[in-house]
Amino acid sequence: MDWILGLHVLSAFYMMGLIWFVQVVHYPLMRAVPSDDFVQYENLHTQKTGWVTAPVMLIELGTGVGLCLFAGEASVFWGINLCGVILLWASTFFIQVPLHNQLSIALSKQNIDRLVRSNWIRTILWTIKAIALMGYLLG
């Protein structure tokens, strides 16, 4: 179980760092992309971002399930942890992905603002999740 835990912690901290960068730097800078170039930029953004997010999110999900299955006495903690992973996936695929899909068709400052605001869900969840994991490891 140690390697599952290690991969899970690594993926959670990786995603926490990445989401803070996206939240504070990347998404707000979308407002500065010239309107004539925005759709091409957005399409390239979603293609390239998938390479650095999807594999790690899949690892986090898979190891989260594994920890739930093999947790033993800490099963409640790992169940709550997995609920956090599921909420992150739900936010990603029911909120942020549809906004990116709309932005891949046309620039909308309102959709960029919605993306920035709604991404706080993931930023806060990954931060809480990483802090909880650190507490578990240190406790």
Give a description of the structure.
The chain is mainly alpha-helical. The protein has one domain (2-138). The protein has 4 helices and no strands. The chain has helices spanning 2-29, 38-69, 75-103, 109-138. The radius of gyration is 16 Å and the shape is elongated. It starts with a helix and ends with a helix. The model has no long low-confidence stretch (mean pLDDT 96).
The chain-level structural class is: mainly alpha
Topology, number of strands = 0
Summed over residues and divided by their number, the pLDDT gives a mean of 96
Shape: elongated
Mind describing the biggest β-sheet?
none
Distance between the termini: 17 Å
Report the sheet-strand fraction. Answer: under 5%
Helix content: over 70%
What's the structural domain tally? 1
Question: Nearest-angstrom radius of gyration?
Answer: 16 Å
Number of helices: 4
H and E string: HHHH
Report low-confidence residues grouped into runs of 5 or more: none
SSE map:
Elements: H1 2-29, H2 38-69, H3 75-103, H4 109-138
Helix pairs in contact: 1-2, 1-4, 2-3, 3-4
Tag the structure with descriptive keywords.
elongated, 139 residues, mainly alpha
Write a brief structural summary.
The protein is an all-alpha fold and 139 residues long.
